[in-house]
Amino acid sequence: MIYKITIPEVAPDVEEIRVLEWHGGPGQWFAEGELIVELETHKALVEVRAGQGGVLRQILAEAGDWARIGVPLAVFSDTDDEALPASPGDGADLMVEFVID
Amino acid sequence: MSGEAKATTERMFFRQAIRRAVAEEMRRNPAVILLGQDVGAFGGSYREFDGLLAEFGAARVRDTPVAEAAMVGIGAGAAAAGLRPLVSITYMDFLMLGLDPLVNYAAKLCYKTGGRMTAPVVIKTTAGAKGQGVAHSQCLEAWLMGIPGLKVVAPSTPADAYGLLKAALREKGPVVYVDHKRLFPTAGEAPLAESVSPIGVAEIRRHGRDVTIATHAYMTSIVLKAADDLAREGVSCEVIDLRSLAPLDVATISASVRRTGRLLTVEEGQATCGVGVEVAARVRESIGAISSARLGALAAPVSSNPVLEAACIPDAARVATAVRALCGRAVPDR
Q: What is the pLDDT of residues B89-116, one digit of tens each?
């Protein structure tokens, strides 16, 4: 199954985030609880941790990039050989945990 | 897109522009110190001072008790003694506790000593409605515009937050620097190269023919939104972001009104004795009779109830209504 990471409104008033660091690249398996990416909002640092296991397939917003809330940042899948969708927004939401500093 | 041109700006959050300005000025001038509630380990109420304690140490980045009169008084005294304190007063509503040292001492010191002493203290504070109720929402900057010896600036973008705060930290006398609370979630381009924005210079954010709208701080984005809407009705608005309230850039506003023939002032604070009243009077003194109108908050306290808060302060629809009335335009059919 194909998944995506999007950023919901993780804190009040967050309209835009900046990607600080990806903790892995395409092809990497993330186990539940592992840190996937660190983001910055206007007020806080936010860790995005895997809430379910999955393979990172595509990074859509590189470190340093800015993204509006709700825009997909990455594509995941259950296994590393699944065909990627035409549009990265087509996947289901990967379960993630947001840890706000 | 050419893509090859070298970037001269970088995108940053509003708070990062503030942090950068303070850090650069603290590196440049060892006399710059920071005082305020939660400015140290916590990094500022809006995280706009993140990391400054680690870089500059507890002697230069000092947490204070909740005692605004003492904070401003210590800032004014330390400034008179040779330091350049940046005093963070979280909400402008509480600045009134510190008005005596600011108005009666800091602003008067240069005059009173025949120029032998100055008090270059910068008060950094926040104004504006953002769900926090009657005593945490006010825009009181107009109160401060008529104090000889005191300058007042209010940015609307990260670039100006950076440039104006740096300018304030190099001024000879006291400056009140006002951020609107709703600017903190915003991001924008700021120059990569170190730069300072001169105090007393307004910025034309949008060029237009039919009416000049003078505004400042967060209301600039509201007015620009209204100007977009009005453009679709064939009304061309020139939007001036004042940036500096004291001194006012009367030349820029007057030149614009001379072209458009009409002036609307928009502010989030009260219209009575507000920024707009002063702007309109100064423009009249400069170029003679003009057609003008003012828009500010309703004459009511700002509620923490979001419905009542929104009802109290100007929005794009109300700006558009005021412009149409001033220009004699009918409300368009929807």
A: 999 999 999 999 999 999 999 999 999 9
Burial of B109 (0-12, 13-18, 19+ CB in 10 A): buried
pLDDT tens digit string along A13-49?
788 899 999 999 999 999 999 999 999 988 788 899 9
Instruction: Return the residue in B12, B13, B18, B186 with the most chain A beta carbons within 10 A, the one to mutate for interface testing.
Output: B13
Tell if the CB–CB gap between B185 and A14 is shorter than 8 Å.
Answer: yes
Residues 171-230 of chain B with CB under 8 A from chain A are 184-187
Structure tokens at B21: 């300005």
Rounded mean pLDDT, B11-36: 97
Inter-chain touch A66–B185, beta carbons under 8 Å? no
CATH of domain A2-100: 2.40.50.100
For residues A44 and A23, give the distance between their C-alpha atoms in angstroms, rounded to a whole number: 18
Domain ranges of chain A: 2-100
Look up the pTM and report it. 0.90
The kind and range of the H/E element at B316 are helix B316-327
What CATH code is carried by the domain that includes residue B91? 3.40.50.970
Domain end marker among B191, B216, B238: B191
Are residue B236 and residue B161 in the same domain, yes or no?
no
| CB proximity B27 to A under 8 Å | no
Vertex B233 angle, CA B228 and B238, to 5°: 45
B43 torsion bin: left (phi>0), alpha (psi -120 to 50), beta (else): left
Mutation target for B interface from A10, A40, A42: give the one with most B CBs within 10 A. A42
Q: What is the ipTM of this complex?
A: 0.72
Q: What is the pLDDT of residues B170-184, one digit of tens each?
A: 999 999 999 999 999
Residues 64-123 of chain B with CB under 8 A from chain A are none
Task: Decide if pLDDT at A89 tops 90.
Answer: no
Chain A residues with CB-CB distance to B14 below 8 A: 42
